[in-house]
């Protein structure tokens, strides 16, 4: 997995609440058997019209945000389907950080498996960053995972919380499965005990 | 220390706990479908790993499969076919339990699991699908995971987890006639919002929940995710045990007795701690429909389309956008909304009881001319049972299409889709923009309400129709 340490980049504002994973990557693109290549279909139905032409008003089609690396989004980002294609599509487009007041559980977890950082901040701070993001390409937001801070383009610093284990894995680009397999003897012990306690399972 | 049902199941599955509280949780059942698993199996191959417990892994194609009879000749859409073929290859290569497309036991993964007795009380159940919450109806801790976690469970039969908080949702009293499990679960989401359950595992309880059949309880738990919760649970009782007993993979003989003894302990202690409590009165719940593009956009069928200005914060713009997408105006009576499509099916409402409820309304009736209406049973076995009970004939006589099992128009990955502007009365779980097809408009409701809408061609208060036929 890619490491995540720091990122300074253009942030795109998406103030809409309840942006669901069907919006992030519509179902017709879930038929792939690969993880890569989904960025071109990110937010497909909001980004392109029926004929496949760009919808000029959509934020990621605007010149300032075509290379955005951060999203500042409305509450409950990533709700709905568990499809990991949503973070795959965001990452493939180039977005590594999403900032919101809250995230849906499964989407939130999926981000960490893909070197992406979802950041939860209070409403007033998200509002300030949304305003900052609305200024366009010159307003670059800086994210530092080690110090757990987001810095706006005018130098305001906001601290965020993150689970220490998830932070450790992101900073070091660790593979969860490899870590768990180091505990294989604990799993074996559990299985042996469970076979006694609940043999019907 | 007193514990909730969630605490008890959690504690019984902790393999290892880190100092910071991160746990390795053992997974008893892993359900797999074709859309969220190919990258996980490929990951195993690339890293030289294998499936740790193939006997606890169950694979079935459901999302992509066509539901027309010609699917016996293969899947026409190339991408769908590749994905279903990949599941077939992976299931056989890694030796997991598998129900292929043309097996009568094939169906939606969350209907097949309980039907075959894979889902049992007190288990941990995961699947790369958010509606895994369905299995919580058995008092199992069940939730959706992403594809990376699917690979993790395949390789280790465990999941790295942080414990959620405990939320109790109590539905007191009894439901009124015409009100169903779907109305309960939508009303709860209407009350809490789609993020109201974020960070929680919900236990549903109360008289109205106890009075539900197992099918109804599955409908309630199925939509726990639409309220943002990691999982929804209902304590197992005699109905649960009766449903499970005799299923192909349920325990038998002495093992049944041992299992039953443990299952009977699976309930929250009277003085357990709840981080959040919601109470609704069962007798006050009305038949509901959704008007917008989020499952929280729910109102009693007697209501009117709301004015976006009546909301607060970011919801004002979201509601404005929703009304524009849905082609609705504030103040419009919900019963004046005309539909052109009816979809009865999905992991929310594709079980035998759902088909019985819809058929009871449709018996001797015809759907409104010009309407497209389809029933997609949740599994091949549900379909066979409905045919045996004469329900299929009622649907066909009324003018419905009678399909083979699959997810179908719930998410429209197969050919069953809405065209732009088409409006659907649907028994599924999501009314998101584009969910049932680009530009398609979805109103969520119970099977009986969808059947009533099929007859009148508009959203309809089932209670009025029941009064007429009574």
Automatic annotation (TrEMBL), chain A:
Keyword Ribonucleoprotein on entry: no
Keywords, sorted A to Z: Amino-acid biosynthesis, Branched-chain amino acid biosynthesis, Leucine biosynthesis, Lyase
Pathway info: Amino-acid biosynthesis; L-leucine biosynthesis; L-leucine from 3-methyl-2-oxobutanoate: step 2/4
CDD domains in alphabetical order: IPMI_Swivel
GO molecular function: 3-isopropylmalate dehydratase activity
Domain Aconitase A/isopropylmalate dehydratase small subunit swivel: 1-123
Subunit structure: Heterodimer of LeuC and LeuD.
Protein name: 3-isopropylmalate dehydratase small subunit
Source organism per UniProt: Roseinatronobacter thiooxidans
Lineage: Bacteria, Pseudomonadati, Pseudomonadota, Alphaproteobacteria, Rhodobacterales
Designated gene of the protein: leuD
From TrEMBL, chain B:
Annotated binding of [4Fe-4S] cluster, by residue: 347, 407, 410
InterPro entries documented for this protein: 3-IsopropMal_deHydase_lsu, Acnase/IPM_dHydase_lsu_aba_1/3, Acoase/IPM_deHydtase_lsu_aba, Aconitase_4Fe-4S_BS, Aconitase_4Fe-4S_dom, IPM_dehydratase_rel_enz, IPMI_cat
Superkingdom, taxonomy of origin: Bacteria
Reaction catalysed by this enzyme: (2R,3S)-3-isopropylmalate = (2S)-2-isopropylmalate
Pathway field: Amino-acid biosynthesis; L-leucine biosynthesis; L-leucine from 3-methyl-2-oxobutanoate: step 2/4
Domain Aconitase/3-isopropylmalate dehydratase large subunit alpha/beta/alpha: 7-457
Keywords: 4Fe-4S, Amino-acid biosynthesis, Branched-chain amino acid biosynthesis, Iron, Iron-sulfur, Leucine biosynthesis, Lyase, Metal-binding
Pfam families: Aconitase (PF00330)
Cofactor(s) named in the record: [4Fe-4S] cluster
GO BP: any one term: L-leucine biosynthetic process
Catalytic class of the enzyme: lyase
One of the record's GO molecular function terms: metal ion binding
Entry note: cofactor: Binds 1 [4Fe-4S] cluster per subunit.
EC code(s) of this entry: 4.2.1.33
Record function comment: Catalyzes the isomerization between 2-isopropylmalate and 3-isopropylmalate, via the formation of 2-isopropylmaleate.
Subunit structure: Heterodimer of LeuC and LeuD.
Family statement drawn from the similarity comment of this UniProt entry: Belongs to the aconitase/IPM isomerase family. LeuC type 1 subfamily.
Name the UniProt record assigns to this protein: 3-isopropylmalate dehydratase large subunit
């Amino acid at each position: 997995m890619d490491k995540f340490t720091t990122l300074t980049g253009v942030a795109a504002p998406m103030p809409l609440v309840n942006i669901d994973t069907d919006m992030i990557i519509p179902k017709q693109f879930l038929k792939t058997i690969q993880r890569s290549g989904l960025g071109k279909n990110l937010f497909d139905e909001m980004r392109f019209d029926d004929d496949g032409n760009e919808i000029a008003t959509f934020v990621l089609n605007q010149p300032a945000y075509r290379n955005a690396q951060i999203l500042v989004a409305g509450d409950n980002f990533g709700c709905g389907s568990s499809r990991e294609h949503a973070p795959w599509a965001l990452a493939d487009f180039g977005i590594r950080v999403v900032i919101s007041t809250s995230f849906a559980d499964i989407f939130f977890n999926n981000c960490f498996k893909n070197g992406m950082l979802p950041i939860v901040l209070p409403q007033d701070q998200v509002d300030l960053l949304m305003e900052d993001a609305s200024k366009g390409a010159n307003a670059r937001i800086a994210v530092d995972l080690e110090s757990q801070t987001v810095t706006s383009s005018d130098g305001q610093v906001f601290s965020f919380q993150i689970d220490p284990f998830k932070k450790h894995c992101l900073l070091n680009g660790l593979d969860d499965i490899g870590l768990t397999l180091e505990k294989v003897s604990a799993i074996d012990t559990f299985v042996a005990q469970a076979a006694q306690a609940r043999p019907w399972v | 220390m007193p514990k909730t049902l969630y605490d008890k199941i959690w504690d019984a599955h902790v393999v290892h706990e880190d100092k910071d509280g991160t746990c390795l949780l053992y997974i008893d059942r892993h359900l797999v479908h074709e859309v969220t698993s190919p990258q996980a199996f490929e990951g195993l191959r690339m890293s030289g790993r294998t499936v740790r417990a193939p006997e606890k892994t169950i694979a079935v194609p459901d999302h992509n499969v066509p539901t027309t009879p010609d699917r016996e000749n293969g899947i026409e859409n190339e991408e769908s076919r590749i994905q279903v073929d990949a599941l077939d290859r992976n299931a056989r290569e890694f030796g997991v339990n598998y129900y292929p497309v043309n097996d009568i036991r094939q169906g939606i993964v969350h209907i097949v699991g309980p039907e075959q007795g894979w889902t049992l009380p007190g288990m941990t159940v995961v699947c790369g699908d958010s509606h895994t919450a369905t299995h919580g109806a058995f008092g199992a801790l069940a939730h959706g995971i992403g594809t990376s976690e699917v690979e993790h469970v395949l390789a280790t039969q465990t999941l790295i987890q942080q414990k959620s908080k405990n939320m109790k949702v109590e539905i007191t009293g009894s439901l009124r006639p015409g009100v169903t499990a779907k109305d309960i679960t939508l009303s709860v989401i209407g009350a809490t919002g789609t993020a109201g359950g974020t960070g929680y595992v919900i236990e549903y309880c109360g008289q109205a929940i106890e009075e539900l059949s197992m099918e109804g309880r599955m409908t309630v738990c199925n939509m726990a995710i639409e309220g943002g919760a990691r999982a929804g649970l209902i304590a197992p009782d005699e109905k649960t045990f009766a449903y499970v007993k005799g299923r192909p993979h349920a325990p038998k003989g002495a093992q049944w007795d041992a299992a039953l003894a443990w299952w009977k302990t699976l309930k929250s202690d009277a003085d357990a701690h709840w981080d959040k409590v919601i109470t609704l009165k069962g007798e006050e719940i009305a038949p509901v429909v959704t008007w917008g593009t989020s499952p929280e956009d729910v109102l009693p069928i007697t209501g009117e389309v709301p004015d976006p200005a009546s909301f607060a914060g970011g919801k004002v713009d979201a509601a404005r956008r929703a009304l524009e997408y849905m082609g609705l105006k504030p103040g419009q009576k919900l019963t004046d909304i005309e539909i052109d499509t009816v979809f009865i099916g999905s992991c929310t409402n594709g079980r035998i009881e759902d088909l019985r409820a819809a058929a009871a309304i449709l018996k001797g009736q015809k759907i409104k001319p010009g309407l497209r209406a389809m029933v997609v049973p949740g599994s091949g076995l549900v379909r066979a049972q409905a045919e045996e009970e004469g329900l299929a004939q009622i649907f066909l006589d009324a003018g419905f299409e009678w399909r083979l099992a699959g997810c179908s128009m719930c998410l429209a990955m197969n050919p069953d889709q809405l065209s732009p502007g088409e409006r659907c009365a649907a028994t599924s779980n999501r009314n998101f923009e584009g969910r049932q097809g680009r530009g398609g408009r979805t109103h969520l409701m119970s099977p009986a309400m969808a059947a009533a809408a099929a007859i009148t061609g508009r959203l309809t208060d089932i209670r009025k129709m029941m009064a007429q036929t009574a």
